User: Fold this.
Amino acid sequence: MSTESRSTTELNDSEHLAVLGYQDSFDRSMSLWANFALGFTYLSPLVGVYSLFAIAMAAGGPPSVFWIFIVGAGQMLVALVFGEVVSQYPIHGGIYPWTRRLWGRRYAWMAAWVYIWAMIVTITAVAEFGSGFLASLFEVEVTRETTLGLTVLLLVVALALNFTGTKTMARVARIGLASELIGVIAVGLYLLIFQRKQSFGVFFDSMGVEGDGSYLHAFMGAALAGLFLFYGFEACGDVAEEVASPARRIPRAMMMTIVVGGVSALFSFGGYVLAAPNLQEIVNGQDPDPIPAILESALGPVGAKIFLVVAITAFLSCVLSLQAAASRLIFSFARDGMVPGHRWLSRVSGTARVPANALIVAASIPLAICVIIYLGSDELLTQITSFAVLGIYIAFQSVVLASLRQRLKGWRPAGPFSLGAAGFAINVAALAYGIFAMVLLAWPGSTGVFVTDWTVLIGLAVVAGTGLLYLLLARPDAKSTAPAGDAIDVAAKLRAGSARQAAVN
Assistant:
């Protein structure tokens, strides 16, 4: 595996972007570490573990921790495929321009449409989960009204920070990274070493979650614990035009996000399991929010408060990263004339040099969804979270499938990051893993209530159906002149450009 091929090393960022048909419009002030921090705070193991710990334990018991290994390995395959794609196409928007250049405009439009809505719902879900930390910190009673108010506060503060520019976003992402590492690794290690109340053998004890049935079924039911944890690395590519040397740095940042995120989640999840004084009650589903009690038991009231401050910082950084990634995708979509109001959405602010109008959209729609959740049922947040995860996995696999299609047509990725001869096998394995993950996410529930059991697929059908209807009636693909399906041609141009540079030098 190579990260410094001679194919495009000689092309600087502006020359590489020119080959792809664009000019530099953004401030390339984001370093490798800032880019990694953006992806890591989007992935946010603290958010993922806290949000789904109780659900995973009730569904699969302590062995559900093994989903972290399974999903981490599968998503690393996907990240490797993404690495080759972004190395050839280091442009804003990530999944949308990648699928357009690998397949075509219609295919990309549908992939991006699903992905945009999944990201917007994810922004909403993370802000909603974060409101619980704010309520605990200020000792405010958790009601529908306080949840709505605190969620809106998180969304608005993140938007204000995003408006100030890429440097602020990168700085907050680095602060969020530090908060995440303290909140998951430091606290997790402390719980593992000094507050352990269970033996390590508990990770092989189902503690009766299977009842009279098979444990395999229960274990599969706990898959969401891992599946919700390992996305966000793609955000590293969403801001490609704000990263220096993106063709080399973004693939590395993506892989770092997976590895560090997986280790962090493992320490965090494992620490909570081993330090839980009432583990059987958690497994039995009698304690729907067990982590605050675990932390207060282990850290004391003052330590638990300090952790809450760290956690809130991580949640805010996660919402900020999500808004930034979503806005860049919307901007990329609009820059190619693929959505209504594309001229307004594709404007870049003159001072901060951020897509300000796209940022407004990335914050205002989640605000509207928060109101819907406020007016809806108690289960609505969990249901829309499941939809968000499925939508993002579908978008991921649209890139993996398009990449495999191009390989079969003879494409040899021309970016500095290359998988070489292993690329085809890794691509196939990533697709197989993705299909497995999507089946798990889409599998209907067993409550017997149709709407509840099929909510995830109903939501997907509504989003995909409206997107397809707009695509067929409005034909946004026909109005766009953005290049599409040119992976093989672009690879040849990049190699020719680097050859000319080498000849001059």
In short: The chain has a mean pLDDT of 87. The chain has one domain: 13-479. DSSP finds 22 helices and no strands in the chain. The domain at 13-479 is CATH 1.20.1740.10 (Amino acid/polyamine transporter I).
